[in-house]
Amino acid sequence: MRFTPIPTDLARHYQLGGADAYGLPPERGVSDGTGNPCRHCLRHIPAGAGMLILAHRPFPDLQPYAETGPVFLCADACPAGGGKGLPEILSSPDYILRGYSADNRIVYGSGAVVPTARLMDEAASRLQDARIAYLHVRSARNNCFQVRIDRA
User: Fold this and answer.
1) Is the pTM of this model over 0.90?
2) Tens-place pLDDT, residues 40-51
3) Is residue 66 in some structural domain?
4) For FRET with 7, which of 15, 75, 134, 142 sits at 20 to 30 Å CA-CA?
């Protein structure tokens, strides 16, 4: 399996001031160094660095299961993160792990709050279910999208 960040072309769109999922320009802020995970480089935005706050919908089309929510991005261009290892941004004690079908619908029964130490094993187990095309990792406290997990 691999961790998949927000696509680079979309990150660059936002970083250049392009409209977010609500048609608004991203808000600009300065990271305090805690709790500001960039969904593109999958690293924490360093203290004092510029950051964007915007509405993101990690689904291709509007439909009832296409949740939209707030995310942070580095304000300046950053390299795409991801790969096979647990990304730096996943540093909370637990996360919601939820499976989605190929038509981007929640696969009922696949969601749970999972301790971060078990995230890799739980994700691998869920990806064995043929109904699940990919997974989302979301904040266990605020339900914010963190990163997508795909089969490698």
Assistant:
1) yes
2) 999 999 999 999
3) yes
4) 142
